[in-house]
């Protein structure tokens, strides 16, 4: 059985129901079939979480159900993470990324997914976790000499914290690092989609062109 016949809908449905055992079982099944770990995330887990988000928005789901689904998501992601990050090549990093969720925001699934992908792509990732104060970002960028800073914010109410973090980074030494801002709210205030994509591309590629790691002094937004 290959990717076309794998039962992604059952995996997504289990996530929607918060059934972490079935999500873990389907993830293992997919891995036993040598399916691409990223396919299991993007065709199984994320479509399930999208439905959860929609149900939450329509008040068909409340926080306890969403929490169960989040746990189910992690039951899959935890199994997939070692395979995705395995490509990371010792000390020979493409660059150093400091990533965290903005102050006041507890959503960390998307941020951890981005961290995982970056690690798998060959970056060293310093993951600060969630609800991270601006000064903690600034200190971490200095301490690790990061080339890129990733800030995640999923809520309208935590967008100002993202802005405070950007301002703090701009004031400190960290202004030389490229910044990637993510989360579904990240692009909202008056930024055109076309510009966001261009900035992110520039941020990630500029430093590489100069052979000094990605994104020095550039800024990008992805959602
Ligand atoms: C799961 C979830 C929760 C879980 C979080 C568990 C966890 N460990 O993360 C729990 C139950 C804790 C939760 C709580 C709350 N939530 Co909530 N939650 C969600 C939900 C359903 C899914 C988010 C998710 O994980 N998606 C899957 C991941 C893979 O996608 P993603 O996060 O978007 O990440 C992708 C991109 O955005 C991007 N990305 C993300 N971060 C970064 C960073 C960088 C640097 C880059 C480049 C890219 C990037 O890449 C990722 C991969 O593609 C969303 C619905 C939604 N549509 O987003 C609501 C949602 C975000 N929550 C919402 C709300 C209101 C809340 C609560 C206030 C509810 C309450 N009454 O208590 C609390 C707030 C708690 C807090 N202080 O943060 C609202 C926010 C509305 C708004 N406009 O502000 C949403 C949109 C639901 C809704 N429609 O109402 N939530």
What report would you give on this structure?
Helices cover 53% and strands 10% of the residues. It is α/β, with parallel strands linked by helices and 223 residues long. A five-stranded parallel beta sheet has the order 2-1-3-4-5, with helices on both faces. Helix 1 (8-16) crosses helix 3, helix 2 runs parallel beside helix 4 (63-85) and helix 6 packs across helix 7 (159-171). Mean pLDDT is 84; it is low at 198-218. Cobalamin binds at residues 46, 49, 52-53, 56-57, 63, 66-67, 70, 99, 104-111, 113-114, 150, 152, 154-157, 180, 182-185, 222-223. Cobalamin (B12) binds at residues 46, 49, 52-53, 56-57, 63, 66-67, 70, 99, 104-111, 113-114, 150, 152, 154-157, 180, 182-185, 222-223.
Number of strands: 5
Q: Uncertain runs with pLDDT below 50, 5 residues or more?
A: 198-218
Report the end-to-end length measured between terminal Cα atoms: 34 Å
Helix content class: 40-55%
- Rounded mean pLDDT is 84
Q: Which class of secondary structure composition applies to the elements?
A: alpha/beta
Portion in strands: 5-15%
The ordered H/E elements are: HHHHEHEHEHEHE
**Main β sheet profile:** 5 strands, parallel
Strand order of the largest sheet: 2-1-3-4-5
Cofactors and ligands present? cobalamin
What structural keywords apply?
alpha/beta; 8 helices; binds cobalamin; 223 residues
Summed up:
By secondary structure, the protein is of the alpha/beta class. It is built from eight helices and five strands; from the N terminus they run ααααβαβαβαβαβ. It has a five-stranded parallel sheet with strand order 2-1-3-4-5, with helices on both faces.
């Amino acid at each position: 059985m290959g990717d076309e016949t794998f039962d992604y809908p059952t995996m997504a449905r289990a996530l929607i129901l918060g059934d972490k055992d079935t999500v873990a079982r389907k993830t293992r099944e997919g891995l036993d079939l040598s399916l691409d770990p990223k396919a299991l995330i993007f065709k199984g887990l994320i479509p399930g979480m999208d439905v959860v988000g929609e149900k939450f928005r329509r008040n068909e789901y409340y926080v306890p159900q969403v929490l169960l689904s989040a746990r189910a998501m992690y039951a899959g992601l935890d199994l997939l993470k070692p395979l995705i990050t395995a490509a990371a090549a010792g000390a020979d990093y493409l660059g150093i990324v400091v990533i965290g969720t903005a102050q006041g925001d507890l959503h960390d699934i998307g941020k951890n997914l981005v961290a995982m992908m970056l690690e798998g792509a060959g970056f060293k990732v310093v993951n600060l976790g969630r609800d991270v104060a601006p000064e903690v970002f600034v200190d971490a960028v200095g301490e690790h000499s990061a080339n890129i800073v990733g800030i995640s914010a999923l809520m309208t109410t935590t967008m100002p914290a993202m802005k405070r973090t950007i301002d703090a980074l701009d004031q400190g030494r960290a202004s030389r690092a490229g910044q990637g801002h993510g989360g579904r709210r990240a692009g909202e205030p008056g930024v055109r989609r076309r510009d966001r994509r261009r900035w992110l591309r520039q941020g990630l590629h500029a430093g590489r062109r100069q052979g000094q790691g990605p994104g020095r002094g550039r800024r990008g937004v992805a959602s």
